[in-house]
Design brief:
about 650 residues; Rossmann fold; Elongation Factor Tu (Ef-tu), domain 3; eight-stranded antiparallel β-sheet; 19 helices; about 35% helix
């Protein structure tokens, strides 16, 4: 067996943050020897425009991928892309300038993205004296008060002389060794932050692999475009590998995929694993630094992963949100996005552009909500926390009678496959959810199953009241009473459960309520008796039914209902439209006809007329009736007994 080429070191991603020209790129070069300013424009201007990457192996054995993000205000959206997947941040503050506007905004973004670990690097100490350095450090300590960097070490550094670089490595080693492994996720996801072509290789994309894993040779899909391709090659920190796993800065090379098919903001995943959506349910936190409240339906810029798109912020329980407050909201976007529950996002104002808030995604494929609905708010409260089984049940309940597939449940719960399987099994054991379609693995909440069953019973009730003399509804007609998108499998499941509960009876193609029986009113009993007596007495020369109703002054509609009952009971036989015979008369004639044909071999129409003693208006329909019942077969002008 060939051993797979896999990097086995603990994988972490370090991101730099801080104001423009505070020395982020110089620090990375001092740590790794790599100049992350790869564009000529960046090197000439001395600022980072695009994301830059490097890597470092720490003394404790962690392999740290380093993302160098831009500091200039115009490139904050690129900074948000770079911050996706970061485990630890190095907040860079220059000693000669101290805390600046982008320092504040970057720290806010890191907090909104729920980054919880970091260090503070005080750069350019060679440009200030000791007293100034102390003052700046005091300002920094006040600046990070109450944030995730409150207890982070402040390390003075000169990238020019190398002073403090060993201390930075030691501090990173201490922080990274204390970071727990990320909880496992079964969904492979790689948000695209760069795409380019390499001669001899074709299209290459890069990004931080935020969950799951990918192998060479696997089929993958780009979202939201749903373009598929096969992985031709993988690199992690410039080293070829067979498998890339969560936490790795990864480059993926494809077979036959054009560069124009890929954009920053796309997400690479397994085929049919993610679901593009225009609506997201979220918990939204408005930053305390925002100067005024934000109103419902405010136009916003949405950032998640490496994507940026426009949309509207819909506040579900208020008309406006105050700075520092958190509320449930729905984001309605202009273009579709793919996400997973608990993904972090950042909101920037439409104009002027600045970071105003963000939070966690609660449902990445949400239905459109009406505002101020208690059940919606209660649902969001429940899915924002709770145990796995409660979360699964809530998301299945929210999906309505359409239910959720296993693939969709992975996305809306962000629960690893094994735990999700166990949770679903427990819920099925407790009859909380039902596996409605085994092949597609679609689950529906028992509450919706009960609602659909009740709807079927109500429809049958109404039908029995309207047509008391009919035994029941046809399967097709009963199904038409359900929502149009209810499939045959779910319909059969509903019927099977109702039969098992002895609520309905299924007879051939007819469904009736178990307690339904045909019962005639007094006037209907009179009609029944008159029909039976008249048709029994008339033998093979009965009246046409219209004439019968007219003679007896019966309501044709009511009389036909009773007639239909007699037909279903087998007492009356329909030979053709409006022509009916008593079943005993037809049975006697059939016996006579079969005996005649057995003796003579064939019968002509005049002979049959003589046999019946009836006029031609009855003879021809009766002959055609026996043909249709496979008693006889017509050969020219004669009939013979049909064999078999």
């Amino acid at each position: 067996m060939v051993k797979e080429n896999v990097i086995t070191l603990k994988q972490l991603v370090l991101g730099t943050a801080g104001h423009i020209d505070h020395g982020k790129t110089s620090l990375i070069k001092a740590l790794t020897g790599v100049n992350t300013d790869r564009l000529k424009e960046e090197q000439v201007r001395g600022i980072t425009i695009e994301l830059g990457f490097a890597s470092l192996i720490l003394p404790g054995g962690e392999l740290v991928g380093i993302v160098d993000v831009p500091g200039h205000e115009k490139f904050v959206k690129t900074m948000v892309a770079g911050a996706t997947g970061i485990d630890v941040v190095a907040m860079i503050i220059a000693a000669d300038e101290g805390v600046m506007p982008q320092t504040r905004e970057h720290l806010e973004i890191c907090s909104l993205l729920d980054i919880r670990h970091g260090i503070i690097v005080l750069t350019k100490i060679d440009m200030v004296d000791a007293e100034w350095r102390e003052l700046v450090q005091e300002d920094i300590r006040a600046f990070v008060q109450g944030t995730f960097l409150e207890s982070a070490p402040i390390i003075p550094v000169s990238s020019l002389t190398g002073e403090g670089i060993p201390e930075v490595i030691a501090a990173l080693d201490a922080v990274c060794s204390a970071i727990a492994e990320k909880p496992p996720s079964s969904i492979f996801r790689l948000p695209v932050d760069r795409v380019f072509t390499m001669k001899g290789f074709g299209t290459v994309i890069t990004g931080t692999l935020v969950s799951g894993q990918v192998r060479i040779g696997e089929m993958v899909m780009l979202y939201p475009s749903l373009v598929s391709s096969r992985v031709r090659g993988l690199q992690v920190h410039n080293k070829g590998v067979d498998v890339a796993v969560s936490g790795m800065r990864t480059a993926v090379n494809f077979q036959g995929l054009e560069k124009t098919a890929v954009n920053r903001g796309d997400v690479l995943s397994n085929p049919d694993a993610l679901f593009p959506s225009y609506m997201l349910d979220v918990s939204f936190h408005l930053l305390p630094s925002v100067k005024k409240p934000v109103k419902n339906r405010t136009r916003i810029r949405f950032h998640a992963g490496t994507s940026e798109m426009l949309g509207n912020l819909i506040l579900l329980d208020r008309e406006e949100i105050q700075p520092g407050d958190t509320a449930f909201a729905q984001l309605r976007l202009d273009t579709p996005v793919v996400a997973v529950k608990d993904d972090r996002y950042v909101i920037r104002s439409y104009s002027p552009v600045r970071t105003i808030g963000g939070g966690a995604i609660l449902n990445p494929i949400a239905p459109k909500h009406k505002r101020f609905k208690e059940d919606v708010l209660r649902h969001l409260e429940l899915v924002s926390g709770g145990k796995p089984e409660e979360l699964i049940a809530q998301q299945v309940l929210e999906a309505g009678y359409e239910g959720l597939s296993f693939a969709a449940l992975r996305v809306v719960t962000n629960i690893a496959d094994k735990l999700l399987e166990n949770g679903l099994q427990q819920l099925m054991n407790h009859k909380t959810v039902v596996l409605a379609e085994r092949d597609k693995r679609i689950y529906i909440h028992a509450r919706h199953i009960e609602g659909l069953k009740k709807h079927l019973l109500t429809s049958l009730d109404a039908y029995h009241r309207q047509f008391p003399l009919k035994p029941g509804m046809s399967k097709e007609e009963l199904k038409s009473k359900l929502p149009a998108d209810i499939g045959q499998r779910l319909y059969h499941l509903l019927l099977a459960e109702l039969v098992k509960q002895k609520d309905i009876v299924e007879e051939s193609n007819i469904i009736r309520k178990a307690d339904h029986s045909v019962s005639l009113a007094a006037d209907q009993t009179e009609i029944r008796n008159t029909i039976e007596q008249t048709y029994h007495r008339s033998g093979l020369t009965p009246p046409y039914f219209k004439e019968f109703c007219k003679t007896n002054e019966f309501d044709p509609s009511k009389a036909r209902d009773v007639l239909q009952l007699l037909i279903e009971e087998g007492r009356i036989i329909k030979v053709k439209d409006d022509l009916f015979f008593h079943a005993e008369a037809i049975a006697r004639l059939r016996q006579q006809l079969v005996s005649f044909l057995a003796e003579h071999g064939e019968i002509a129409t005049p002979q049959f007329k003589e046999l019946t003693g009836a006029s031609r208006k009855y003879v021809i329909p009766l002959l055609e009736y026996f043909d249709s019942k496979n008693v006889t077969i017509r050969v020219g002008d004669i009939r013979k007994l049909r064999n078999g």
